[in-house]
Amino acid sequence: MAGTPVWSVDPRTGKQRERVAVEATPREVDQAVRAAHAARGALADRAARIAFLRAAADLLDASVTAVVETADAETALGAGRLTGELGRTTYQLRAVADAVEDGSYLDVRIDRADPALAPPRPELRRYKVPLGVVAVYAASNFPLAFSVPGGDTASALGAGCPVVVKAHPDHPATSELCASLLRRAAEATGLPADVVSVVQGFDAGLELVRHPLVTAAGFTGSVRGGRALFDAAAARPVPIPFHGELGSLNPVVVTPAAAAERAEEIGTGLAGSVTLGVGQFCVKPGLVLVPEGADGDALVGALVKALGETEPGVLLDHRMRENFIAGVRERAALPGVTAPVTPGPGGAHTVAAGCLTVAARGLLAEPEAYGTLLEECFGPVTVLVRYADQGEAAAVLALLPGNLTATLQLSAAECAGAAPEDTTPESAPAARLIGEVTRLAGRVVVNGWPTGVAVAPAQHHGGPYPASTSTSTSVGGTAIERWLRPVAYQSVPDPLLPPELREANPLGLPRLVTGTPAS
Fold it and tell me: Tens digit of pLDDT for each residue in 180-212?
């Protein structure tokens, strides 16, 4: 096997497991993209896409043992977590198939001609068409749900776009296995295998986003890597949409009333959320505003106890482990920062969970000096900012960049009267908080935890930059919209219209006709 080898590595030992592939050359990337481009016509068949997505889900489910064993061997995420992730992945594929079958994603709209309007309105018919080849950049922390068979791939294929995935180096064997299953499913349902393919290697990622036949890209990863690809996508002779999920601090605000009501419950729940998946969730709560005083102290005590009882865990690779250890060391060295439970190395290949604390007044007095506390630290650590009053809490929130999520821990009384129009002393602070965090995040959580992103039509997984580079979601029913563009047809004779827009509606699609739902 000539070329630069791609190795599968066991993060539990740091040792190479097997040589999986070789890094794709520029010529091989070009071949993969051109093959995908040539296959796009086959994806125009909506029924074939639906059958393909469901067959892919079935084949992945039937291969659960091989997929989970391979993924665990090179991510150390554990069989239980990975089995659940595979179930989520196949549910997502079937959900996209259902959305394609329903047809609402095409957003068919018809406005009848009306010569009596000023100016007169011509006959207009509008729907959405696929963009073309989509580049997908797999995530490190979700080797299934946000990787080769994940949401970006599923939604792009559902839209009718062939996909070329740039595999993540942390799980190359899993990527190759899943790609082979998707390609088998394509062929089994009468589609070319090249509607989905995988390339490996860092340089392949740059070649992919620059390829003239690639029409859009989806990315899940770091701010640094995502911004480099985003800039490359924008710098092309013909720029393309780049839907990137980059980094998120996911702030939590605990009100004094909530701390008084259930300090232990909140502290224990926070520990579970911070350490879930060894702190490697993109929605891990990384900064928590906790009130000063006895109730806040009780919350911190419960958190410290739960973190202290958490066993050290293995991160996805040793580079991430080194970055985590260096990151928490840098943050802990800042003036006024203390570590009730010291995060850091837990063993030769593991890390220990922990938390850091800082007073809001110190952070606000010199925010530039504490900048790293306001950045994501990938791994099992969170920063507690102890605030004296609502003004300090609001001032800290005003320093934060965009986030995927923001969470509020409220009391029962605050929840009972949290409508914005309610101005009672008890409910007004909660209503203001909802408004303050809404500007920060794409998903607002109350009295829960952000870890876990349900695949549902109303879901939004994205947020203001740097959480993401677009206003779209990468999870849920509207994720498919990223890979489509609208086209309007004016005064086009019915026989010349696409079937989706013809008067008889031969495909039975839902549509709006001059503002009225019809089918």
Answer: 999 999 999 999 999 999 999 999 999 999 999
pTM over 0.85: yes
Spatial CB neighbours of 127, under 8 Å, sequence gap ≥ 6: 106, 107, 108, 109, 486, 487, 498, 500, 501
Per-residue pLDDT tens over the stretch 290-308 = 999 999 999 999 999 999 9
245 is a catalytic site residue: yes
Give tens-digit pLDDT for 2-45. 789 999 999 999 999 999 999 999 999 999 999 999 999 999 99
Residue by residue, DSSP assigns 227-245 as: HHHHHHHHHSSS---EEEE
The yes-or-no answer on residue 282 being catalytic is yes
Cross-strand partners of 258? none
Catalytic residue among 74, 245, 376, 414: 245
Per the listing, tokens 């650590």 go with: 381
Measured CA to CA, the distance from residue 48 to residue 56 in angstroms comes to 12
User: Among residues 161, 178, 282, 355, which one is catalytic?
Assistant: 282
φ, ψ dihedrals at 375, nearest 5°: -120, 150
Q: How many CA atoms lie within 13 A of 351 on its CB side?
A: 33
Q: Which residues have CB under 8 Å from 112's CB, separation 6+?
A: 121, 123, 513, 514
Give the separation between CA 90 and CA 143, rounded to whole angstroms: 13
Residue 342: partners with Cβ closer than 8 Å, 6 or more residues away: 332, 352, 354
pLDDT at 227 over 50: yes
